[in-house]
Design a protein that fits this description.
Chain lengths: ~300, ~350
């Protein structure tokens, strides 16, 4: 099948700041692609170029096989968009808001059906100002689904929502996914990407630095497991040269504070070696733990920074 | 006739207006409150009163006693006694505008600010009293007769001015604020990501303006008819056409102010900057004939002046639209120039 979206070599600068730096991506029918990266990585600029809200300095965008530059209005008929922090008219009811948005498209869902899609039947006649943050976001999602979009852009759809509201939005999106529909999602939440995305593109400084399914990325970049350990205070500095010469793999570990984090697929061997070494040198381990690697570790491994600090 | 999306957006404008009680209050009730307050305050003219200071003299005299007695019983005068320092303080506070000193035998000195019109009138009034006391005889007999021609009352002057003011404030604030807050809240950007046509958004705002305009027009005019028996001597159609043209000019200005602004304090400051001088200089409450000549020449190019003058010429003098060439050109120029610039500069986000 033909991809829903193909973008090649997108570039965009604002003054001296390069927001997007030669980024290429595609979305296949039935697929959810997540752009994962810290705030300021260029995700929003990328999505806004794909939505036709900003013009790229260079690069091409094809949606449904048409050029976005030349057939923007026709393309937008089948595209759904959720921007970051949008306030809809607070004096309108959910039903009125949906019939307003529905009127913008040549073909649109029946308002009641759209309300049912986001499970807001009881709140259909409530004004938006009386809704909670999660309910507002669901109403906004319904506005983006009113034209039955083949391609849905979601820019940080659950930022600022409580965990329960986020899970509800995820369930609704899970239901929306279908054979010929595609989703492009930006997020800085690992769990959101892991939950929704079929494919993740890790974005940093306006570039995609890694791409693949979440499991694939974790396995390829981090191995299966993360081994974390910490020596008792002050011991590390004295014994650093001996440690590094005895444990050749220690240089591959990332130091987070005074904690070593090693990504590995052979945890048992490394724990054995570590134990022997500690005994020989008379050191003491304060902490030793093993956990499954996450996308957070992928980002840390690729950039040396944590997503939250970046 | 109207596309589906335009109809929906006009409905949305109407709902926004109807569901915002404060908007309704400002638009409909404020002009009425002004009209009632000022209309009644000035409907029965009573003579002006003056506060004057009675200065001590170095020696007393019988003439001084007589004048003091005369001044203190006059209904138009409020006489304050005191030392010259005390009286000067009262003058600074605006309690008195004139100080009088009567020296023996028959010598009167006035102390006042010649650039203060009230002080000049107070001096003339007091002087004529004192001269009469001193024995002046007016050789020509005079008689005062009150005139109240229809269309010549203060309230007749006031009502078109209030209509103009109300059209100005509601157009400037209504359109400007809505667009800027829609932009700030990313809603305009969201619209841009739909196939909706930009002109439909603008046209919906213009239609919204017409609805508000109808409400404020009816509020001002009906109150004027019922309570003050206001009468439009010229054609009603001309009166309505000119009101609409005025609203168009102010909507154009509002669109221009809101073309790129992203912050609410910025747009409200800008709107105040534009509307405040007009409120004072365009003859809303009082005739602008008291302004210096050069300032009158400048203010005649302000849109509110053009609107107020035009409305008064139609309502009070019964002139047809044809005779309002200047006013119509001014309003038309603001509409066209501002709308064209706004269209050039407009940013969705």
């Amino acid at each position: 099948m033909e991809p829903l979206l193909v973008a090649t070599e997108l570039r965009k600068s604002f003054g001296k700041v390069t927001a997007v730096d030669g980024l290429s991506l595609n979305v296949q029918p039935g697929e959810c692609l997540a752009l994962l990266g810290p705030n300021g990585a260029g995700k929003t600029t990328t999505v806004e170029m794909l939505e036709g809200l900003q013009n790229p300095d260079s690069g091409t965008i094809q949606i449904f096989g048409k050029s976005l530059k030349h057939e923007r209005r026709a393309i937008l008929e089948s595209v759904g968009v959720m921007l970051q922090d949008t306030q809809l008219y607070k004096k309108l009811t959910v039903r009125e808001t949906l019939s307003l948005f529905g009127s913008f498209f040549r073909k649109s869902l029946n308002v009641d059906d759209a309300i049912a899609l986001v499970e807001m039947q009881e709140k259909a006649d409530a004004r938006l100002e009386s809704l909670s943050g999660g309910q507002k976001q669901r109403a906004y999602l319904a506005c983006s689904l009113i034209n039955e979009p083949r391609l849905l852009f979601l820019d940080e759809p659950t930022t600022g929502l409580d965990p329960q509201a986020r899970r509800l939005i995820w369930d609704l999106l899970e239901k929306h996914k279908g054979r010929d529909r595609g989703i492009l999602l930006t997020t800085h939440y690992m769990d959101e990407a892991e939950k929704l995305a079929d494919r993740v593109a890790v974005v940093d400084h306006g570039k995609i630095i890694a791409e693949g399914t979440p499991q694939d990325l974790i396995r390829r970049i981090c191995g299966e497991q993360i081994l974390c350990f910490r020596f008792a205070e002050t011991q590390l500095d004295q014994h650093r040269p001996e440690l590094f010469s005895k444990l050749a793999w220690l240089k591959d570990a990332t130091l987070v504070g005074d904690r070593f984090e090693l990504t590995t697929s052979n945890t048992i061997m490394h724990i054995g070696e570590l134990q022997r070494c500690v005994d020989q040198l008379g050191l003491k381990l304060e902490e030793l733990e093993m956990r499954r690697a996450t996308l957070e570790d992928v980002f840390l491994k690729l950039t040396g920074r944590s997503m939250r600090d970046a | 006739m109207l596309s589906h999306s335009l109809r929906e957006q006009i409905k949305c404008r109407w709902r926004e207006f109807r569901r915002e009680p404060s908007a309704f209050f400002w638009v409909v009730f404020m002009p009425i409150v002004w009209m009632l307050a000022l209309g009644f305050a000035f409907s029965k003219p009573h003579p002006e009163t003056y506060g004057i200071g009675w200065l001590p003299a170095s020696e007393t005299s019988s003439f001084r006693e007589i004048v003091s007695e005369k001044l203190s019983v006059d209904h138009q005068l409020k006489v304050r006694q005191g030392t010259s320092e005390e009286l000067e303080t009262k003058m600074k506070r605006g309690e008195i505008s004139l100080m009088v000193q009567v020296e023996a035998p028959q010598q009167v000195r006035y102390f006042f600010d010649a650039s203060n019109p009230e002080a000049v009138r107070a001096r003339a009034y007091v002087d004529s009293l004192i001269q009469a006391t001193g024995g002046r005889f007016d050789p020509v007999p005079t008689e005062n007769q009150a005139v109240s021609v229809e269309g010549g009352r203060y309230v007749d002057f006031l009502i078109p001015g209030l209509l103009g003011l109300s059209v100005m404030t509601s157009s400037l604030f209504g359109v400007g604020m809505t667009i800027v807050s829609n932009r700030k809240e990313n809603l305009l950007k969201r619209y841009l990501a739909t196939p909706m046509r930009a002109w439909e958004y603008v046209v919906s705002h213009i239609c919204g303006r017409m609805m508000v305009l109808t409400a404020e027009f009816l509020a001002v005019m009906i109150t004027g008819f019922v309570i003050f028996h206001f009468k439009v001597y010229g054609s009603w159609l001309s009166y309505i056409v000119l009101t609409i043209l005025g609203a168009a000019a102010f909507t154009g200005i509002a669109l221009l102010c809101a073309a790129r602004t992203r912050s609410i304090p910025m747009i409200s400051g800008l709107t105040n900057l534009i509307s405040l001088p007009m409120m004072m200089l365009s003859g809303v409450f009082f005739s602008k004939n008291n302004l210096p000549e050069w300032l009158q020449a400048v203010t005649s190019f302000l849109p509110l002046t053009a609107l107020n003058d035009g409305l008064r010429k139609i309502a009070l003098e019964g002139l047809p639209l044809m005779d309002l060439g200047f006013e119509i050109s001014v309003l038309g120029a603001y509409t066209v120039v501002c709308a064209a610039l706004a269209q050039r500069l407009f940013r969705w986000y």
